[in-house]
């Protein structure tokens, strides 16, 4: 306590998180230590820790009575820290203003491995600056404990905020900035260059991001090991509409350790981009190219080079993929567990047959909106994929109750079945429910409950 009293301590106000007019901010409006707020934006503020003692006798008596009733103050420090660990960043900042003990506990380094901010009105750049400055108090200019930053849907996040993270958080391992469309390539390059331990990066919805690479300075400095310095294993670039094959080539060349890659609705990606990807990234376990309309059977031939390493594949609404592409995947990727081929109208019973006979450990399959798949294909699934847990047949016009009964009689572990907009009888649905008791059936038959 004596050491603490000799230092000037401060804590970010909840105004970092709540806009001045929000309900959660009303209690702090009368504080004498609060700075003035600007209408229409969230203001970052810094407050001194609460005083140790209250001088006014009436206030002192009231606080003493409240203290006697506050059972939470009887909890030991380790229990309080455990409770605080479940709070989001904004609530943790609020707890730090209750009393000196809570202040010291709320800023325990173990609670600041993660910063989580969400909302469109937050001045994220300023919030990150104030928070990192406070976390760097013991280690000037470097925040060694922070490993995860999640800033989702914060449209006011700019390159300045990411640059703050890059400069102050060298131990960062996970960064999620989904829906923050104001950040650019330069800011992302700074983060991956200055945070060598970064493994998880989510830039989904960041439409200005076109690739992932080191900065020029980092590339020159690390030229002997060029291409192996970015340790990212998980990369989500969903809805990065501007991403092209050239950008994917750059990503593949720099992120050779990728195991999870999601390119949903990256509509400019073609088979050529997948060819680049398979040259460098041979450890991919999960891959999504859903709604990439230029990906075809030739792209599946490239993806099949992953062989037994591939466990998850989503090719939903890739209309150029047919039975030929499915045969490539089934032949070489025998350990596939999840396949989403919804909307691939070129897939028929022949493709399902080849898939069922070669990928017998399949657990989840979505072949909805594939009008050429019939009961024959379901029979092959039922006789080969006994571990099937999730099956979606939504809008499969050729499916009947007979096919469902065959599946239910063989796949006892089925947990989810989607037969919406399928012509199946109530008796067939009851048969499924009777044989697969844990199965949740999604249907559009008003006679079945």
Describe this structure in words.
- This protein has a 13-stranded parallel beta sheet with strand order 3-4-5-6-7-8-9-10-11-12-13-14-15, with no helix packed on it.
- The chain has 449 residues and is α/β, with parallel strands linked by helices.
- The protein contains 17 helices and 15 strands.
- It starts with a helix and ends in a 7-residue tail after the last strand.
Number of H/I helices: 17
Strand order of the largest sheet: 3-4-5-6-7-8-9-10-11-12-13-14-15
C-alpha Rg (nearest Å): 28 Å
Structural class: alpha/beta
For the record, the CATH class of the domain at 113-251 and 259-277 and 285-295 is Alpha Beta
How does the major sheet shape up? 13 strands, parallel
**What is the number of E strands?**
15
Q: Please bin the fraction of helical residues.
A: 25-40%
What is the name of the CATH topology of the domain at 113-251 and 259-277 and 285-295?
Leucine-rich repeat, LRR (right-handed beta-alpha superhelix)
Q: Which overall shape is indicated by the principal axes computed on the Cα atoms?
A: globular
Taken as a percent bin, the fraction of beta residues is 5-15%
* Residue-averaged pLDDT: 83
Distance between the amino and carboxyl termini? 65 Å
Which ranges are low-confidence, i.e. pLDDT below 50, for 5 or more consecutive residues?
Answer: 1-10, 19-47, 223-227
Biased composition (Polar residues): 1-13
Domain F-box: 69-115
Pfam family, one: DUF7885
Pathway: Protein modification; protein ubiquitination
């Amino acid at each position: 306590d004596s050491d603490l009293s000799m230092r000037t301590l401060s804590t970010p106000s909840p105004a970092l998180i709540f806009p001045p007019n929000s309900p959660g901010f009303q209690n702090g409006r009368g504080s004498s230590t609060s700075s003035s707020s600007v209408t229409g934006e969230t203001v970052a503020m810094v407050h001194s820790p609460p005083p140790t003692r209250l001088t006014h006798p009436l206030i002192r008596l009231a606080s003493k009575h409240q203290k006697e009733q506050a059972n939470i103050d009887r909890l030991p420090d380790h229990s309080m820290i455990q409770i605080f660990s479940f709070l989001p960043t904004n609530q943790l900042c609020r707890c730090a203003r209750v009393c000196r003990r809570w202040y010291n506990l709320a800023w325990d380094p173990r609670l600041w491995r993660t910063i989580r901010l969400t909302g469109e009105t937050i001045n994220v750049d300023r919030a990150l600056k104030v928070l990192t400055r406070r976390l760097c108090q013991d280690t000037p200019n470097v925040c060694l404990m922070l490993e995860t930053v999640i800033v989702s849907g914060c449209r006011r996040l700019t390159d300045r905020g990411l640059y703050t993270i890059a400069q102050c958080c060298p131990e960062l391992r996970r960064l999620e900035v989904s829906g923050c469309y104001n950040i650019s390539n330069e800011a992302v390059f700074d983060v991956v260059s200055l945070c060598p331990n970064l493994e998880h990066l989510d830039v989904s919805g960041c439409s200005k991001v076109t690739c992932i690479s080191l900065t020029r300075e980092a590339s020159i400095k690390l030229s002997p090991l060029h291409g192996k310095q970015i340790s990212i294993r998980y990369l989500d670039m969903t809805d990065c509409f501007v991403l092209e094959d050239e950008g994917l080539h750059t990503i593949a060349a720099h992120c050779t350790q990728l195991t999870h890659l999601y390119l949903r609705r990256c509509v400019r990606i073609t088979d050529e981009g997948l060819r680049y990807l398979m040259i460098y990234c041979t450890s991919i376990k999960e891959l999504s190219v859903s709604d990439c309309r230029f990906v075809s059977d030739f792209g599946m031939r490239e993806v099949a080079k992953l062989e037994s390493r591939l466990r998850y594949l989503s090719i939903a609404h890739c209309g150029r993929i047919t039975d030929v592409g499915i045969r490539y995947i089934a032949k070489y990727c025998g350990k596939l567990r999840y396949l989403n081929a919804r909307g691939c109208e070129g897939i028929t019973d022949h493709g399902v047959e080849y898939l069922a006979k070669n990928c017998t450990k399949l657990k989840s399959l979505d072949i909805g909106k594939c009008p050429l798949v019939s009961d024959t294909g379901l029979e092959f699934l039922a006789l080969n994929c006994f571990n099937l847990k999730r099956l979606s047949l939504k809008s499969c016009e050729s499916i009947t109750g007979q096919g469902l009964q065959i599946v239910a009689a063989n796949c006892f572990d089925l947990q989810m079945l989607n037969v919406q907009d399928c012509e199946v009888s109530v008796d067939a649905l009851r048969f499924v429910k009777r044989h697969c008791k844990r199965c949740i059936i999604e249907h559009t038959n008003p006679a079945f409950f």
